[in-house]
Design goal:
α7 packs across α10, α10 packs antiparallel against α11 and α10 crosses α12. Helix content is 45%, strand content 15%. A hairpin with a 2-residue loop joins β8 and β9. The N and C termini lie far apart (53 Å). The chain is globular, with a radius of gyration of 20 Å. The protein has 12 helices and 10 strands. A 5-stranded antiparallel beta sheet has the order 1-2-3-5-4, covered by helices on one side. Strands 6-8-9 form a 3-stranded antiparallel beta sheet.
């Protein structure tokens, strides 16, 4: 990765902080960028320093796009934006007082309605300036792997025809694109006094809302009942086709994010997180779903509005 300016230098670049009592600490949890909590005269902020090499490797949107989407998301469920430092690039945002959720909590049925509400709020907000497609991202990351000679998980390309069938089924009855986060692992949800808020717009872009739900399901390892509950809370008319659509995107999420972790491991190795193990875990889940015959066939049929029970 490229050299990041020192924290002392960064603090001096925020005009409203100069000459004031400032304390800072590195925040854990971000897998790609550099995140700090900064307390200025007792008021807390988050300084998010973006790593351009991450987007250059296909692991996120360009920094200027992430910042623009962060500003737009602040109108709905994101943190407020106080300062943009485009030359770093970095952004100063609101420190959200609340509880960072974990996967076990996101699986609790009683919290799923709040998660669905947060997604609806984001999706009803102003459109982002870019689009996102999970299958296009898979193609892009496969290209990164090929260029850098990164090994793919065993059997990954052998199942490409099944992934193509999944993509075709989802393309047959597309939903209108809305501004989506596209990377809703549990830790990107903050439970606050005014509802669940959403942070970290590294992979944001306009997308099918069913992918957003399927990605939540993949990251928190939802079973079909929890997927049905999330779809029912989000969609007013969550019929069998919509529930199947979310479940198929759950599979697509695991298929593509397997490569995200493969690339991150190959290009940006870190002792702080086992990217290779995460890639193997996601591919194991994806492979089980892709090899589930006739289960996957029933989902493909249901997503296209056909009777999945012959």
């Amino acid at each position: 990765m490229t050299a990041v300016p020192s924290i002392a230098d960064l603090l001096e670049r925020v005009p409203s902080w100069v000459g004031r009592a400032v304390e800072w600490q590195r925040l854990q949890g971000g897998l790609s960028h550099h995140i700090y909590r900064v307390d200025v005269d007792g008021v807390s902020y988050v300084l998010r320093v973006l790593e351009p090499a991450v987007s250059a490797a296909g692991l996120g949107v360009p920094p200027e796009q992430e910042i623009a989407n962060t500003v737009l998301a602040a109108r709905t469920v994101g943190a407020q934006v106080y300062e943009v430092l485009p030359d770093v690039p970095a952004v100063v945002i609101e420190y959200l007082p609340g509880r960072t959720l974990g996967a076990a909590e996101v699986r609790r049925p009683e919290i799923i309605p709040s998660i669905a509400t947060a997604c609806r709020r984001l999706h009803a907000g102003p459109a982002f300036g870019n689009d996102f497609d999970i299958f296009a991202k898979r193609t892009e990351l496969l290209g990164v792997c090929a260029r850098h000679d990164l090994p793919l998980p065993d059997g990954y390309l052998d199942r490409s025809s099944t992934v193509d069938a999944l993509e075709s089924a989802l393309a047959a009855r597309p939903l209108p694109r809305v501004p989506c986060h596209n990377d809703l692992l549990a830790e990107n949800f903050i439970a606050t006094g005014d509802g669940v808020r959403i942070i970290d717009y590294q992979l944001s872009g306009n997308n099918d809302p069913a992918f957003e739900l399927g990605d939540i399901a993949a990251e928190a390892d939802y079973d079909p009942d929890l997927v049905g509950l999330l779809a029912g809370e989000y969609f007013a008319d969550a019929d069998e086709a919509l529930r199947a659509r979310v479940r198929l995107y759950q599979v697509a999420s695991n298929v593509t994010w397997t490569l995200w972790f493969t690339v991150h491991h190959g290009l940006f190795k870190s002792a702080a997180f086992d990217y290779a193990a995460e890639a193997a875990e996601k591919w194991g889940q994806a492979k089980d779903a892709l090899d589930d015959d006739p289960g996957l066939g029933r989902l493909l049929a249901a997503a296209n509005g056909r009777n999945p029970h012959p």
